């Protein structure tokens, strides 16, 4: 457990996207997160993660690689209709994710393209890539299951777009954008 905690004290580089959402949908997500996202609500806005914490790549090379890959992609749209629970790979928590039903393949293609070249060695094949916006987490997986079931009875339909990537640093539970790259 100590290793899991200490890993986030070191600075890492990530690639995320803050989705464009209608105000009502953003407000609903944030209201839900304020109640149930005890780990990240105060740390980062709703987002999709494309490159997970990288501790090994030079920052300038990382930025150059992401810029190169991003040129091959255009803004894309998605629709969130489903909540799913997933056991966190780095802690004892279980998460509740909003998963894109439409646009899913574009998330996967962008993720896979980013993990080419200099980032290929950083890809964790032991952790499946599930495009998502995290909205809740808890040490009790049953509580997360109840939340996901509750959401899935709502006939949720959140339409959004991904038009830019954010290269961020994450250290000591703080997120800082170091570069924005438009698709």
Q: Layout of SSEs?
A:
Layout: H1 2-6, E1 12-17, E2 20-21, H2 23-36, E3 48-54, H3 59-70, E4 76-87, E5 94-102, H4 104-114, E6 133-138, H5 141-152, E7 158-162, E8 164-171, E9 174-182
Antiparallel strand pairs: 1-3, 1-8, 2-7, 4-5, 4-7, 5-6, 8-9
Q: Care to describe what's here?
A:
This protein is of the alpha+beta class. The chain has a single domain, classed as Alpha-Beta Complex (Cyclic Phosphodiesterase, Chain: A). 30% of the residues lie in helices and 35% in strands. The protein has five helices and nine strands; from the N terminus they run H-E-E-H-E-H-E-E-H-E-H-E-E-E. The protein has helices at 2-6, 23-36, 59-70, 104-114, 141-152, and strands spanning 12-17, 20-21, 48-54, 76-87, 94-102, 133-138, 158-162, 164-171, 174-182. The strands form two sheets. The protein has a five-stranded antiparallel β-sheet with strand order 2-7-4-5-6, with helices on both faces. The longest helix is centred in the first third of the chain and has 14 residues, at 23-36.
Query: Architecture in CATH?
Result: Alpha-Beta Complex
Helix share bin: 25-40%
Number of helices: 5
Average pLDDT over all residues: 94
Question: What does the main sheet amount to?
Answer: 5 strands, antiparallel
Number of strands: 9
Proportion of strand residues: 25-35%
Distance between the termini: 38 Å
- Coarse structural class: alpha+beta
User: How do the strands line up in the largest sheet?
Assistant: 2-7-4-5-6
CATH C-level class: Alpha Beta
CATH level 4 superfamily: Cyclic phosphodiesterase
Query: How would the global form be characterised?
Result: globular
Radius of gyration: 16 Å
Domains (count): 1
User: pLDDT under 50 segments (min length 5)?
Assistant: 1-8
